[in-house]
Amino acid sequence: MKTGPLQRVLVRPPRPEDVSSWRELGWRGEPDPAGLEAEHAALCALLEDGGAEVVRAHGQPGNLDAIYTFDPLLMTDGGALLLRPGKPQRRDEPEALLAELLQAGITVVGGLEEPALAEGGDTLWLDEETLVVGRSYRTNDFGVDALRAALPFVDVIAVDLPHLRGRGEVLHLLSLISPLDDDLAVVYLPLLPVRLVELLEQRGVELVSVPDDEFETMGPNVLALGPRIGLALEGNEQTRKRLERAGVEVLVYRGDEISRKGDGGPTCLTQPLVRGHVDSGVSRSS
Q1: Is residue 285 helix, strand or coil?
Q2: C-alpha–C-alpha distance, residues 8 and 91, integer Å
Q3: Which residues pair with 181 in a beta bridge?
Q4: Among candidates 219, 234, 255, 258, which has minimal Cα distance to 65?
């Protein structure tokens, strides 16, 4: 799994004019503009302190969901693949990022077209040649087929995600799992697809299970800053202790505005552009 040292990461800072879209986008509450800005700035500072270059995009004005930069793109070894979000209000985000990606020196290898739907939160690289895709209300069969066509040398494995609370509340694959090393992941096991559990078992991946009462507070949503170094939303103390027992250094950030109200944790708020190799320190796209 891709957990090498995070060297370059794309974010999209919130703007005051974005806040008015919160109800239309289904946020749990109206965020405070100053709190949004402060929390996002503090998150970026943690990323920079960890050694990552933070690339700040402007994105789509007036769209509060645009701060969740993981969903519009899939980073491949060849560059960025523009996705086509299943949430209608986010449909224009990939195109809005195109010029900024090119300006940042990121190669864009293509994009998905109608009727394909796919969001980054439904994708998980198990290794360089294996991509797991969650079939969800945000990622359809056409999207899975389009990813297979766009990545002909990659084994794209589709797994069905549960209905849970239905179309109106997002449940991504990465709502259930975050990789923290080649052989370690934090998961919410009760909802994890059986096929994925079996794949992880076959690969000898240790699973740190999030307790039931910390699933709703995004316990499984942890960003790998490097192997066994995780950035998590503050709280979820049981999950944190379990990760530490597994040898993970856990850093936390405050996300009352940027995360809790919009249901987007650290993996949602960031798009890793470059990770380093653990063995040689040589950079590669991730």
Answers
A1: strand
A2: 25
A3: 184
A4: 258
d(CA 235, CA 56): 27
Coil, strand or helix at 120 = helix
- Is the torsion defined by CA of 185, 67, 232, 46 positive or negative? positive
Predicted pLDDT of residue 281:
40
259, 246 Cβ separation under 8 angstroms: no
Residue 272 exposure: Cα atoms within 13 Å on the Cβ side: 25
Q: Domains of the chain by range and CATH?
A: 6-276 (3.75.10.10)
Question: Residues in the chain, how many?
Answer: 286
The pLDDT value recorded for residue 168 is 83
Q: How many CB atoms lie within 10 A of CB 25?
A: 15
How much is the pLDDT for 108?
98
Q: In which residue ranges of the chain is pLDDT below 70? A: 278-286
Query: Cα 14 from chain centroid?
Result: 17
Number of alpha carbons in the 13 Å side-chain half-sphere of residue 228: 12
Q: How many CB atoms lie within 10 A of CB 148?
A: 16
Quick: pLDDT tens for 230-253: 999 999 999 999 999 999 999 999
pTM for the whole thing?
0.96
Q: Which residue has the tokens 């519009």?
A: 72
Do strands 271-276 and 6-11 pair parallel, antiparallel, or not at all (unpaired)? antiparallel
Starting at the edge strand found earlier in the chain, the sheet holding 155-160 runs 123-127, 130-135, 155-160
pLDDT given at position 279: 60
**Closest by Cα among 51, 57, 61 to 70:** 57
